[in-house]
Design a protein that fits this description.
Blueprint (H helix, E strand, L loop, with lengths): L2 E4 L7 H9 L8 E4 L7 H14 L2 E4 L18 H15 L10 E2 L6 E5 L16 H11 L5 H4 L8 H17 L7 E4 L29 H4 L2 E6 L6 E5 L2 E5 L5 H4 L10 E4 L3
Parallel strand pairs: 1-2, 2-3, 5-6, 6-7, 7-9
Antiparallel strand pairs: 1-10, 4-5, 8-9
């Protein structure tokens, strides 16, 4: 029985749909953690999660930024919080666990551990080092032509800003994590890295401000993480921060995973540790 993880499936690409169709558990009891960016449209998100839920005994999903976009071609034109809640209900109809459900406890080897899918967003606090504030950091990114598509398609409604939505999600998520059994470790599953360090290898450092929040920088310690699972960066690798394994488990776009030497080690086994 293994706890496996993957992210950034981007099944809008036919080549990536083939990868998802071919994913199979080693054991009938394997769980799969999906750390966001299944797709951009509600139809493809449902296809991806339905395909995975047919093959794995338990699927746990945390949203990425792409799922929260409201693209013009999507039949579902909900924005912000309403779109997120719609996706939660879609997942529940498929038997997929979400950040709004009770956190499950994985009982396999290396457990028991609380598996906590998170949705906390970002607040631009991973800003460009030379910038004195968020506005200056964003301006520097625009000058370099490094601008996340979220600025056009990810709406924070009814919150006045993405920062405000992030703060609200952080407050609620901290409350839930603090209420977990203190005797149990956790596996924290979030689309973005909970700490800034993994973003320091980005080719365009200006992009880091769309990659998380400083408000989660100590969560891996405060909430007893046995591992942290994330995606978004499209740089699959394993690192250790404060003694805690951090696993970036993205598939990425075909143009990325086709490159010579690109690691194709997903889904990655999180527990039991190798």
């Amino acid at each position: 029985m293994s706890l496996l993880a993957i992210s950034d499936l981007h099944v809008g690409h036919p080549e990536n749909r083939k990868i998802v169709e071919g994913l199979r558990p080693v054991s009938d009891d394997d769980w799969l953690l999906v750390a966001g960016d299944v797709a951009e449209t509600s139809e493809l998100i449902e296809w991806g999660l339905a395909t995975l839920s047919r093959n794995f005994s338990t699927v746990v999903w945390a949203p990425g930024n792409h799922e929260l976009w409201t693209p013009r071609e999507d039949v579902v034109q909900l924005r912000g919080e309403e779109r997120y809640r719609h996706l939660v209900e879609l997942c529940r109809g498929l038997g997929v666990l979400t950040p709004e459900d009770p956190y499950p406890v994985w009982q396999g080897t290396g457990g028991p551990v609380v598996v906590a899918p998170l949705f906390v967003g970002y607040d631009y606090s991973f800003r460009v080092p030379a910038a004195r504030n968020t506005e200056e950091s964003l301006a520097l990114a625009h000058e370099k032509g490094v601008v996340c598509t979220d600025e056009f398609l990810l709406h924070p409604d009814p919150y006045p800003s993405r920062q405000a939505w992030c703060r609200a999600r952080v407050t609620e998520t901290e409350r839930r994590l603090a209420a977990c059994d203190p005797a149990l470790p956790t596996v924290l599953v979030n689309h973005y890295p909970l700490v800034r360090e993994p973003t320091r290898i980005l080719h365009h450092p200006e992009f880091a401000q769309w990659c998380g929040t400083e408000l989660t920088a100590d969560w891996h310690l405060r909430f007893r993480a046995a591992a942290v699972v994330y995606g978004h960066l499209h740089i699959p690798r394993s690192t250790v921060h404060d003694g805690v394994p951090f696993e970036e488990v993205s598939v990425g776009y075909p143009r990325e995973w086709r490159r010579p030497g690109h690691p194709r080690d997903v889904p990655r086994q999180i527990l039991p540790r190798g």
